[in-house]
Input
Amino acid sequence: MSLRPDNPLLVQSDRSLMLHTVRAVIDAKGNAARDKDGAPLTEEHPRFAAARDALAGFAELEKSPDYLHTYRITPVSIWNAAALGLTPQGIQTTLEDFSCVPIPRNVQSDIRQWMGRYGLLAIERRGERFELVAREPGALQDVLGHEAVKKLVLVDAEKRVWLDGLSRGTLKQALIKIGYPVDDRGGYVEGDRLEIRLRQARLSGGAFKLRPYQIAAGEAFHAGGTVVGGNGVIVLPCGAGKTVVGIQVMSLVGTKTLILTTNTVAVRQWREELLDKTELTPDQVSEYTGDQKKVSPVTITTYQMLTWRRSKTGEFEHFSLFSRENWGLVVYDEVHLLPAPVFRVTADLQARRRLGLTATLVREDGKEDEVFCLIGPKRYDVPWKVLEHQGFIAAAHCTEVRVPLESNLKQAYMAASARNKFRVASENPAKTRVIEQLIEKHRGGRILVIGQYIDQLNALARHLGAPLITGKTPNVEREKLYDGFRTGAIDVLIVSKVGNFAIDLPEANVAIQISGTFGSRQEEAQRLGRILRPKSDGSAAAFYSIVTLGSRDQEFAEKRQLFLTEQGYSYEIIEAGELPPIAASAPGVAVAAATTTKEDHA
Output
């Protein structure tokens, strides 16, 4: 294939990919056009968007400055691509199609080698026993040279490799660490049968019908009930109905189900969705939380509940829930947040069907390989922009508003440690005025203000007279405030990190992020996701990230934006002074609020 020098992609031997987002504007004489100040003029590269979408299938975005995006090809990114049906030749064709220089031979070799490793080893059931088999005999010889693998298996006189059923997860963990992702076809315990019928009309009113991509996602996981499927991760944007996909999978599997999610509010939302969209009765769906610990054919609990213990060295007292019933399916909601102790118990659950649901496979702790081998590979993925164009999630305009650091804080900022510099910049009081301007600009909308630091949020809640939800807000009060926001009694709601995940607020159309968790890409995606439910009037959502100009706050904001940039979103950068001033005639920025007390803001 002949290379085009005007292509946007440069593939380097370290497996990094440099993608040009723009190119020079050429005038009628064939020269680089310049503006009135003599600076070169640029335009978006005509092949940038197509290249970005193609690379997302097998590479990870690492950096996204204005003109040059950096991706990296990794073993896990290639194994997930293989699980979705991509081939080494297909990836090479894509790279050659967009590259302006020849593809380094070692990159081609690495892709072939890594993809060749996917499924090279498999676990298969032989009656009541499990065997580790290989497409190539040399692979077994190779892995048995590693002590971490050798101690988990038994090699018989015929050189066949056997393992105990309870060692499946531990063995897969050991093998992926040495570059061998295992295709586990050992099958599943079927679990106690439970018929879960989907309603044609929701209990709350209105027709209920699965969307085409939801049907495709559920079928990709289920794989007709064969051992080819039954484990893995579905990746869909926030607002695209991941819970509905989970419900569909439950219907396809038809067994008792254990659902793990992030907090008690999410537990109750799952229960409401199940009762609204299936024919399950209230006594068949229960919550297992700090408020009530009931086990039913469908039981919903939280990661925090499962990992609770009386002391750091004590036992996880609620792990028994995994074996309390003969579960045929375990659903991991927001699987990218799976805590380490749950990884350990999941290693023993390889005989149960396992479904992970998430908006992003990005884990800030780098344990994507653990999700891959213990929950399963990526089974279905739809780019956010695709669903936006189809009208299934709202269009969103992302804006980064840069605010100067208040002069009285500059000395404290310069003297602070790197970590404290970030906090000083994040809590910049000058952000308050910007929030007021944005609330005024979007008066009449439903506005979420999201932040990281409780002191900052408390001060803002007092200043605006708006209700605040933090981790200490009782669940009853949280639900009361969320309901007030849904009905319009509250039009500005301030939330801490508890607002990042699994909150159903379809009316929200503006999100203002005032501080975040360092460079957390997953957090940025989840926060944008709070406002992506389609709006009844078809209007777009607005996402603002307020950062302190020229500070650590700004540096980490650039890192947080990586995943969304990969999904096709771009951030307009503006200075705080560019925002319209609050009109003198405007009645301030008072917000409607539910009846609260000072204690509610604690």
About this structure: Residues 392-601 form a domain with the Rossmann fold fold (CATH 3.40.50.300). The first helix runs from residue 48 to 55. Residues 585-602 have pLDDT under 50 and may be disordered. The longest strand covers residues 396-403.
